[in-house]
């Protein structure tokens, strides 16, 4: 069912370049008219591989601490749980009907409804132009919750696919009238709005969430050039340089904070995974309460000791593995140093996914360690056995696209498929690395190792 009243020009194929030009022009016009400070411009972005899009780039030199963009809070779509909804003047009909239907709707759904109002001019002139010209086209949203059913299995990871399907079902149940697709093979209206909010909104303070136009297009970097802050006294959100910058350098921010995020969370929330993510982790059923109980039952049945559980339901201490043994099993100090120093990010993330004792005295008896390692390896082996494509095949697909000069954002290739293949390839690389480490651990140190 098409939701009447929403008009969105969808640019595809050769029209992608025209859409990019319009986005850049709209950004410049709106920033000049509404921002007292704007030393950035929206420009095409590429990392030299399959990724193409737009980003914020400095138009003038900036010193550390300089404000390079100042967006009035009066332009923002905000939910402040202490002060309520804060919106520019306008009717906002879908948002208002949503609040009347359920006053307890969460902030992200409220902002998604506001974006849909913006598309059809139900907000104000600024937001009508911004939503239609600058926000992502439907087929450019790579979050799993915005993928069609045919693409979810292509992630080749049941947990993230199931989470996306559940989110889609939840959104469809909230507002069935917004369940029609925006374009062929594209997200529904509400999936698009929610996907934009999920990947682009900001938490400005405790219980204060906002969609900040102009700032929302800033790209992520592990070592960002800028940071954002709410300047309540001046009534604006500011983008501040955290290092000296020259014209043409990109103004990036960190989406994750210093702790980082796993690839699963990054993909679910933002639709991409970075290369060499030291914050990535694997989760094991054998390390949660239910899995631990299962290991204990297996031990009671004669397939291990009854104390083999990673964490027994009766509150027994977790089974912790020996890092010293792992280092000996890796065969060289250099291999461990490369992993723990982050030079081998998959090995680093794999080691951090495993329950090693911080103090060797706390490591469990060796038999229990080996039994746990066997269970963890079996989980990874079962996952790998279900993959319809291999790590090598996925790598060859990406390499082939690269050699053909394809890519998202107008490069002739569906950006969603690029994101999907990159996600599953990097998960497979982490799984393969962790499987090998567990095998090394179970086999023991090589002959002659200390």
TrEMBL record:
One annotated GO molecular function is: protein-lysine N-methyltransferase activity
Q: Which Gene3D superfamilies match?
A: set domain protein methyltransferase, domain 1
Looking up InterPro entries in the UniProt record yields:
SET_dom (IPR001214), SET_dom_sf (IPR046341), SETD3_SETD6_MTase (IPR050600)
Q: What are the boundaries of the signal sequence?
A: 1-17
Q: Keywords for this entry?
A: Signal
Q: Can the keyword Metal-binding be found in this entry's annotation?
A: no
A Pfam match: SET
Q: Which SUPFAM superfamilies does the UniProt entry name for this protein?
A: SET domain
Q: Start and end of every SET domain?
A: 36-256
UniProt-recorded name of the protein: SET domain-containing protein
Originating species: Chlorella variabilis (Green alga)
Lineage, top ranks: Eukaryota, Viridiplantae, Chlorophyta, core chlorophytes, Trebouxiophyceae
């Amino acid at each position: 069912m098409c939701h009447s009243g929403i008009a969105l020009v969808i640019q595809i194929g050769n029209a992608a370049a025209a859409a990019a030009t319009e986005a850049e022009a709209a950004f410049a016009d709106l920033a000049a008219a509404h921002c007292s400070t704007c030393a950035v411009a929206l420009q095409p972005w590429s990392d030299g591989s399959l990724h193409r899009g737009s980003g914020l780039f400095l138009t003038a030199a900036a010193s550390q601490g300089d404000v390079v963009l100042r967006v009035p809070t009066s332009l923002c779509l905000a939910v402040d749980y202490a002060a309520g909804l804060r919106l520019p003047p306008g009717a906002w009909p879908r948002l208002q009907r949503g609040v009347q239907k359920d006053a307890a709707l969460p902030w992200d759904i409220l902002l998604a409804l506001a974006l849909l109002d913006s598309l059809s001019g139900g907000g104000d002139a600024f937001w009508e132009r911004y939503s239609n010209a600058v926000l992502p086209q439907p087929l450019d949203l790579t979050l799993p919750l915005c993928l069609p059913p045919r693409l979810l299995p292509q992630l080749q990871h049941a947990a993230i696919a199931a989470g996306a399907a559940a989110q889609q079902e939840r959104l469809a149940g909230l507002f069935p009238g917004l369940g029609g697709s925006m374009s062929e093979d594209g997200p529904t209206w509400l999936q698009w709005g929610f996907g934009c909010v999920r990947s682009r909104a900001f938490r400005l303070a405790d219980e204060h969430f906002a969609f900040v136009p102009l700032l929302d297009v800033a790209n992520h970097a592990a070592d960002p050039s800028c940071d954002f802050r709410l300047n309540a006294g001046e009534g604006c959100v500011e983008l501040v340089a955290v290092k000296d910058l020259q014209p043409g350098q990109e103004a990036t921010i960190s989406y994750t904070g210093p702790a980082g995020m796993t690839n699963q969370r990054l993909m679910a929330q933002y639709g991409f995974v970075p290369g060499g993510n030291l914050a990535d982790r694997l989760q094991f059923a054998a390390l949660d309460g239910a899995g631990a109980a299962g290991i204990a039952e297996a031990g009671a049945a004669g397939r291990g000791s009854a104390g083999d559980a990673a964490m027994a339901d009766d509150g027994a201490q977790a089974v912790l593995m020996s890092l010293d043994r792992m280092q000996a099993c890796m065969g060289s100090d250099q291999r461990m140093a490369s992993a723990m120093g982050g030079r081998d990010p998959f090995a680093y993330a794999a080691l951090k996914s495993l329950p090693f004792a911080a103090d060797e005295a706390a490591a469990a008896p060796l038999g229990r360690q080996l039994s746990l390692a066997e269970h963890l390896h079996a989980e990874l082996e079962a996952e790998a056995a279900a993959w319809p494509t291999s790590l090598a095949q996925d790598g060859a697909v990406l390499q082939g696209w690269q050699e053909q000069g394809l890519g998202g954002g107008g490069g002739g290739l569906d950006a969603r498929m690029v994101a999907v293949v990159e996600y599953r390839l990097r998960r497979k690389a982490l799984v393969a690395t962790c499987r090998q480490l567990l095998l090394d651990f179970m086999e023991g140190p090589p002959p002659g190792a200390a």
